[in-house]
Amino acid sequence: MRPVIVLGIATAVLASGCGAQKSGNDADSPSRAQSCSYDSPGTLLPALKHGFGDETSVHIDMKMDAAGQKVAVAGDMEMTQKDTAMTLKSTGASEFAMIAVDGRLFMSQSASTPKYIEIKADNPASAALRQQLDSANLRTTFKAFDAGLTKVKPSGATTIDGTSVCEYLLTVDARKAARAQGQTQLPASMPKTVEYHLFLDGDDHMRRMKFDLGPVSMVMNMTHWDEPVDISVPKIG
């Protein structure tokens, strides 16, 4: 299982509709964010939009255990109104490195000593890889979250690495989320609903997300929001 696919599934139900301007509703109030009081999709979704703004960047660390096969994925994303660039490295049961920048896609079978090749549009693997990247893109997956999120339950305040955060239990209609993302052939084994734990900091930035679904468990940490990142075309070979 390619971990980028799992990353796509995870972000598909957690991504905000980036590019939203700060509005005058109560979701924009820092006091509300710090009181852990978002209790419905109607209050949480505007808060997530508020947390992104027009341009942002974020570092992602994800650890997944799929029936004993452990995978770790780390990378950066830089998102603007017009484009999204990202770099990912996966180690463990599935090792690879990937860079998407300026509309181009580069892959390496090694993450520790990457030797990149460009996956051009006429490559038979291009369409599938780009679809997976679209799923992993925080900016393009809001439709799935908007369609699938059914319940939001505040679970109180806690800390992550010294940062105060609010924990929320989210219930997502998995099939609605998948269909909203363009998936038409859904496996019969897909559960009706999935529960996720989402942690937001005082700026409404997503700090952590985790879930357990049968033999699969995943924790994804998001840090270094709005800090400069270097995502550029790599050396080939």
Automatic annotation (TrEMBL):
* Superkingdom of this protein's organism: Bacteria
Q: Which Gene3D superfamilies match?
A: 2.50.20.20
PROSITE patterns linked? PROKAR_LIPOPROTEIN
Query: Under which name does UniProt file this protein?
Result: LppX_LprAFG lipoprotein
Name the source organism. Nocardioides jejuensis
